């Protein structure tokens, strides 16, 4: 039996992903993890399985001071304080201030130099090419060439920022996390808006890989302090969020297995000497039968509870590594048959476009092999249940408003 005084996970964030991470650790070790953030969102509010600490900070200095203040108090009780970031912003904030946190906390994160190579998409694509990780056909748009830029790919094409941190602070009409553009005029007007809004870094233009959401994959991994990949879990997203500012987030995932892809990811992570949690977004290209990597995130995926729900608790691995000192034995490459949902199950069945996938999702639902991050039999109350019902039910209106059929693109 693990003595809970040995460690306390500090989860940065109070959103859906933070709750899923906390729930995973609660299930693995029967503890109440700490969620630390600027506010208590509905996902973690009134929860019985975690504790929330709210601090007010607006910059790195205030963040470090607030986190260290919390850490010093918790250190009176726990030997190991393990930081886990639930969002890109928190992950990058930890990495920027890693040297000011390492004495008090266990900080399973890469350094700033590698972060820059991974989070700036133009640099990531170069790194992927060097290590044999397939990527889509790509062109770079800059502040210098956007006025007369010409795509070498057939339309439709995909457009997204290389620097997501800078892009996040922009405000302009029609802003999206990523764009699918149908012609040269739409490309020209979109990049004009982006650069005129103050964006100064590179935009990524990519060939649009044919197919609907069922061609997407998401992979979560944990790499220990010795650079060993302890666990990889592959998910097959079958439906994406259609809300304009949330496009790219998944709302239905079925577990998947692909030995070749697992080997490619493992080689990539070991080659670049990664450490910590990582998440890849990929899409299957039927033209050459390869999975093409779009993004890599230095934190667990936003739907990362699907790993635990399917029987592979990836968050237990960071505790085994840093607090319990369990040695690496082998890389676990997950293989399971489970459905994770971030929307009502009837909505998922209605909007999934691929008939084969729809049939599989129906079967998993009939077999009761499905789960939600926030619906938790160990974490119920009248207030919480009502909030969660409203949270999930709002997706009906979103899909009625924004859904577009993409299967013929």
From TrEMBL:
Keywords: ATP-binding, Ligase, Nucleotide-binding. The keyword Metal-binding does not apply. It comes from the Bacteria. The keyword tRNA-binding does not apply. Coiled coil: none annotated. PROSITE patterns: ATP_GRASP. Residues 125-323 form the ATP-grasp domain. Gene3D superfamilies: ATP-grasp fold, B domain (3.30.470.20). GO terms for molecular function: ligase activity. This is Carboxylate--amine ligase. It comes from Companilactobacillus keshanensis. The lineage of its organism: Bacteria, Bacillati, Bacillota, Bacilli, Lactobacillales.
